Amino acid sequence: MSLHLEHIKQKFGSTPVLNDINLVIRPSEFLAILGPSGCGKTTLLRIIGGFLKPTSGTVRLDGTVYSDSSVMVPIENRDLGMVFQSFALWPHMTVREHVEFPLKSRKKAGWPAEKKEAAAAQAIHDMGLDALADRYPGELSGGQRQRVSLARAIVSKPSILLMDEPLSALDAELKINMRKEIQDIHRRTGAIIIYVTHDQSEALAMADRILVMRYGVIEQLGTPEEIYTHPESEFVATFVSKCNLLHGTWQGSDFHVAGHPFVYPDTGIACPLKEKGLYPVRPEQFHITYDGPGLEATITNRQFHGREIHYAVTCGKEEFQVFARSGEVFFPGESVRLVFTA
Questions:
Q1: Backbone phi, psi, residue 318, to 5°
Q2: Domain with CATH 2.40.50.140 in the chain
Q3: Which residue among 99, 202, 281, 286 has the highest number of C-beta atoms inside a 10 angstrom radius?
């Protein structure tokens, strides 16, 4: 089943939050909605979930209308599960009771007790919670509590899973492990997953497609590879790809770097960037050397990241980011050259 969002608009008072969002989310797709705080991504998720009625527009799952000008299907009657940023666990309920809770809804009243018991047991097992089934949330770690939240969301086998920044409360190492858990859930369930985040690395690592939002509109929609390698706007280039934006002039398919005798080739640069006289260079596309045909620059900062060293360099009035291999060591204050490698 496909989820269709048609001309979705949302205002809070006189303030527009979403402006004419049109989107088709494909069957079994993992869609990440990515953007800075205040861009409208959580508002869009709340509209899909039925927590909020759109000012105008339609939400439908194939032929079933969830929201429009005259229809507002209640949350409990929508075929979806929800994973919250805060876990949303009740302190007086055990792991098993949390997972069983969605099966007590009127929508699942027709399920026989044996089916409900088996579904709860399977969800608990899938999330590795068998040994913790009788514990309370206060007796669990952050990662274990998030697994309970995930098990509760998948137990009724919904067609859609909504996730609102589910990993933001976890530490860095646990986030990496939980990414794999969520990907495994996606493969096992075949559900549509709509995953809201402001973390570019999460979106790039997990999603089939990424929807980049800004100021309540869609900036770009595409695969992680498309978003990273071919940003269609200045915002996407700097927010997702962390591109360095060089200024200059375009002459046909050649970019002439302002103030330097270098010409860079057109590697599929989007028209909006060309119109502004910009050329995006990702941090790994610059190679730092002490000499050679490159932009003159000065190292201003160095951060060791294991396999990579992240450098901040100044080039004229601009500051650029450059990612180098761990053996390529330069020191703040040194004069270097930046050589572009397409």
A1: -95, 150
A2: 242-340
A3: 99
| DSSP line for 55-120 | SEEEEEETTEEEESSS-B--GGGSSEEEE-TT----TTS-HHHHHHGGGGSGGGTTS-HHHHHHHH
Overall pTM surpassing 0.70 (yes/no): yes
Q: Which class would CATH give 242-340?
A: mainly beta
Short-list 33, 48, 40, CA closest to 16: 40
Question: Domain 3-226 belongs to what topology?
Answer: Rossmann fold (3.40.50)
Chain-centroid distance, C-alpha 94: 31
pLDDT-derived band at 19, boundaries 50, 70, 90:
very high
Helix (H) / strand (E) element for 321: namely strand 318-325
Q: Could you tell me which of 334, 330, 228 has the C-alpha nearest to residue 282?
A: 228
Side chain identity at 326, as an amino acid letter? Answer: S
Q: What's the start-to-end Cα distance of the chain, in Å?
A: 40
Residue 336's nearest CA partner among 292, 282, 302, 303 is 292
Q: Which amino acid is at 60?
A: R
Residue spans in the chain of domains classed CATH 3.40.50.300: 3-226
Q: Answer yes or no: is pLDDT of 169 > 80.
A: no
pLDDT at residue number 171: 83
Q: What's the mean per-residue pLDDT of the chain? A: 93
